[in-house]
Amino acid sequence: MKIKSFPAAAALAVAAFAVAALLGLMTAASADHDIRYLAFTADVHYNRNDGTGENPFRAWMEKLRNVVPHVEYMAFLGDNSSAYSSDTWGEVGALMELADSYKTSGFVLTDNLFLLGNHERWTTAGGNFDAIRDSVEHTRRFMQAGKYLETDGYALYSFGADKTPEGAPYYGANYGGGGAQMFTEENIEALDKYLKTVSADIPVFIMSHYPIHTFTSPEGVDRESGNAEMLIDALNKYPNVIFLWGHNHSSADPLYDTFFHPGEMLHVGPLAENQMKEIKFYYASAGCMHDAEYRAARSTSIPGGANVKGKGLLAVIDGATITLTYYGIDGNVVNTDIFTIGGYSQTASGFDMRMAVIIIVTILLVIAAALYVARRGKFKAD
Predict the structure, then answer these.
(1) What is the rounded distance in angstroms from the CA atom of residue 97 to the CA atom of residue 269?
(2) What are phi and psi of 194, to 5 degrees?
(3) Are residues 178 and 121 in contact, defined by beta-carbon separation less than 8 angstroms?
(4) pLDDT tens readout for residues 221-241
(5) Cβ–Cβ under 8 Å, residues 287 and 296
(6) Which of 133, 261, 294, 297 maximizes the CB count within 10 A of its CB?
(7) pTM: predicted TM-score of the whole model, two decimal places
């Protein structure tokens, strides 16, 4: 009898040990990542003379300190200088200096990222980036279109306002400097090529000054982005993309302070044609830091930027669980969204469900092996 029972007991002990070990791996796996924090904004329109841009940004950052211990990157998605300043690049340098003070203090752990907007390009707004890019030192800090940063938990891709063809039939072309509101085919192809190389299990934040959707401003001008359909077709292959935008603050675009998910629709092309196109990625604004750079069209009292309550966006990355939150200048939550990304689902603890399947299958195989050993031991004893 002892010879018969020993193999079965040993097999069950092995199975129990394997189950315990695998449960331990499950617990370890659920905590095998750090929570990451990123912050974004757009349209600071910094002006040293009257504190506009500077004061909202400083207030917003001080409030954000009370929400998270740090952010790894703080990204500015274009239009960094005031349209009313006679020293565009002096304003940009001053904003960079203020932003870097938060890096010096340790709140911004890695770096501040600056992207180009139409105001950095428009000749009439004092920008003309391509003409001065080699003569003004801090212009070299701009993260131009096609540049990216990749970590083990996320990627950041610059899709900032790139130079556009002269005479392009889109908003802003007549202001000079190659600042039309459009995405070039070359940049879309480069973005598509890059996204093919990125793991589907990490979020890719595409940082753009221009939105994809069309918005007709109250003054009757279509804010249409050229090649929007082509861009959507490219991005729809990558469900881990989070596309962030700015630019439309001057006319109180109602898509600010909102979130769009895969399966929802965006207006593209001339709004009069009422053309809608489905997206299969995530879409949100980066916020608008400035309150009063432009007044809403047909109004003498309401600044356009004041209609945007979310001055900036905080992204919290907990494994594949992403939380996006717009915060107001007072530090209060304007809107928040939680979702998971990548080619798999995930629990709130961050435990990879694919690993759960592997563990369950392994346990079943171990139990089957244990029973097989037990039966062989019984047969030999008999």
Answers:
(1) 39
(2) -65, -45
(3) yes
(4) 778 899 999 999 999 999 999
(5) no
(6) 294
(7) 0.81
